[in-house]
TrEMBL record, chain A:
Coiled coil regions, renumbered to chain: none
Family, per entry: Belongs to the sbp family.
Protein's name according to its UniProt entry: Membrane protein
Keyword Cell membrane: yes
Organism name: Arsenicicoccus piscis
Superkingdom: Bacteria
Its membrane topology: Multi-pass membrane protein
Membrane-spanning ranges: 27-44, 56-74, 80-98
Keyword Transmembrane helix: yes
Keywords: Cell membrane, Membrane, Transmembrane, Transmembrane helix
Compartments it resides in: Cell membrane
From TrEMBL, chain B:
Ranges of Low complexity composition bias in the record: 249-259
Annotated spans, Disordered: 240-259
Pfam family, one: DUF881
Entry-linked InterPro entries: DUF881
UniProt protein name: Membrane protein
Organism annotation: Arsenicicoccus piscis
Stretches of the chain forming a coiled coil according to its record: none
Length: 110, 259
C-alpha cells in the first residue's frame, strides 16, 4: 500500500516539478522506465507467489534499469542504438506480459 | 531478476488460492525496511515515468540520436537545395515576364504617342491645349492671301502644333488661294471675320503675331483689324481627310523596331 502511494507521489512530483531530462539521460530514461516496470510486475508476482524478498526486489530493480541502459548505450556506440532499444523494449514487454499473466492467474484463477 | 522466475510449487496448501489475501497482506501498511525500500523505488519509478511522459510530450530535436539528426539535416539540406533551385527558376520566369510586359507596355505607349502626334499633324483628330485665338475683321479684299500665308508661316515658326483658319484645318498639304476677292483654305471659302486658332505656347504665339512690322501690323496697314487673345485652352476642332498617297510608298525600314 505504501509503495503504491509512493508511486502516485512520484508521478505527482514529476508532473508538478516538470524536470527537464538531461541530454545524456534522454535515450536511456524510457528504457530504464520499462525495465523498472518489469521489475515491479515481477515483484508483485513474487508477492503473490509468497517468495517476495526485498533484497532481491531492490537488486532486480536496479540491475534491470542499469542493464537496460547499458544495452542501449552499447547499441548507440555500435550504431544500432534504435534497433537494440526496440529489442530491449520487446523483451521487457514480453516479460511484463508473462508476469501480468501469472498475477492474473493468482488473483482470478484464470 | 530472480524475483521474476517462476515460483516453486506452493508448499502450503492454505495459501494456494489466497492470491487476494496475500496481496492484502502485502499491502498492509508496515513500517519496516522492506516497505521503505519498495516505496523509495516506487517513488523513483513514478517520478521517472511522469518525467519521461512529459518529455515525450514536448519532445524536440534534442532528444534524437546523432544518426537521426544527421538524417534530418541531410533531408533538410537536400530540400533546401531543391527549393533554392525552384526559387531561382521562378525568379527567372518572373523577371522574364516583368521585363517582357514592361517592354511591350513601353512599345505600346511609344506607338500611341507617335500615333497621336501624327494624327494631330495630319489633322485627323481634334486638338486642344493652350494657345491663341486671332480675329480679323474688315472688308473683303483688304487681307490678301500672302498675308494669310505669312500668318500661317509665322504661327508655325512660333511652334504652333495645330492651326485652324475659319472651319479649315491647316496641315502640311494645305494651300491658301484667292479667287474672286475671297480667300480659300483647301477649298473652304473664308468669310469675314476670319477666326484663326492655334495651339502652342500662348506667349510665343502672341509675340510672334504682335512684333513690330509683324502680321498684326501688316493687317492694319491693309486696312483691316486683328486682335490676338491668349487662352489657356483652345479647341481646334476642324478636321482634314488624310490624302491617300497614289505614288509614294514608304521605304522599308532596316531598323530593328520594324516587325
Amino acid at each position: 500500500m505504501i509503495p503504491a502511494l509512493g508511486l502516485i507521489v512520484g508521478i505527482a512530483l514529476g508532473i508538478f516539478l516538470d524536470p527537464s531530462v538531461p541530454v545524456w539521460l534522454q535515450p536511456y530514461l524510457p528504457i530504464a522506465v520499462i525495465a523498472a516496470l518489469d521489475a515491479v510486475f515481477g515483484g508483485i508476482r513474487a508477492v503473490l507467489d509468497g517468495i517476495f524478498n526485498d533484497k532481491v526486489f531492490v537488486i532486480s530493480f536496479l540491475s534491470n534499469v542499469v542493464v537496460a541502459a547499458l544495452i542501449v548505450f552499447l547499441g548507440d556506440q555500435l550504431g544500432v542504438g534504435s534497433q537494440l532499444s526496440t529489442g530491449v523494449v520487446v523483451v521487457l514487454g514480453i516479460r511484463i506480459f508473462s508476469n501480468v499473466a501469472s498475477i492474473r492467474r493468482h488473483l482470478f484463477h484464470a | 531478476m530472480s524475483s521474476t522466475t517462476p515460483p516453486p510449487p506452493p508448499t502450503d496448501p492454505t495459501r494456494q488460492e489466497s492470491g487476494w489475501s496475500r496481496l492484502l497482506e502485502a499491502a498492509k501498511p508496515r513500517a519496516n525496511r522492506k516497505t521503505a525500500v519498495a516505496t523509495a523505488l516506487a517513488l523513483a519509478l513514478g517520478f521517472a515515468v511522469a518525467t519521461q511522459v512529459q518529455a515525450t510530450g514536448k519532445q524536440g530535436l534534442e532528444s534524437l540520436r546523432t544518426t537521426d539528426l544527421v538524417r534530418i539535416l541531410d533531408d533538410q539540406t537536400s530540400r533546401n537545395e531543391r527549393l533554392d533551385l525552384e526559387t531561382r527558376r521562378l525568379q527567372a520566369t518572373r523577371d522574364e515576364l516583368v521585363n517582357g510586359s514592361s517592354k511591350d507596355e513601353a512599345a505600346v505607349k511609344a506607338a500611341t504617342e507617335r500615333l497621336n502626334q501624327l494624327r494631330i499633324l495630319a489633322g485627323t483628330v481634334k486638338a486642344t491645349g493652350p494657345g491663341i485665338t486671332m480675329t480679323i475683321t474688315g472688308q473683303p479684299g483688304q487681307v490678301t492671301y500672302p498675308t494669310l500665308l505669312d500668318l500661317v508661316q509665322e504661327l508655325r515658326d512660333a511652334g504652333a502644333e495645330a492651326i485652324q483658319i475659319g472651319t479649315a484645318r491647316v496641315v502640311a498639304q494645305s494651300y491658301i488661294a484667292e479667287h474672286d476677292g475671297a480667300l480659300y483654305v483647301d477649298n473652304t471659302k473664308l468669310t469675314l471675320p476670319y477666326t484663326i486658332k492655334a495651339v502652342g505656347d500662348g506667349d510665343t504665339l502672341q509675340a510672334a503675331m504682335n512684333f513690330p512690322g509683324g502680321i498684326v501690323e501688316t493687317i492694319r496697314q491693309q486696312g483691316a483689324e486683328a486682335t490676338v487673345t491668349k487662352a489657356p485652352s483652345v479647341l481646334v476642332d476642324a478636321l482634314q481627310q488624310p490624302p491617300t498617297d497614289r505614288y509614294a510608298r514608304p521605304v522599308p525600314s532596316a531598323s530593328p523596331s520594324a516587325p
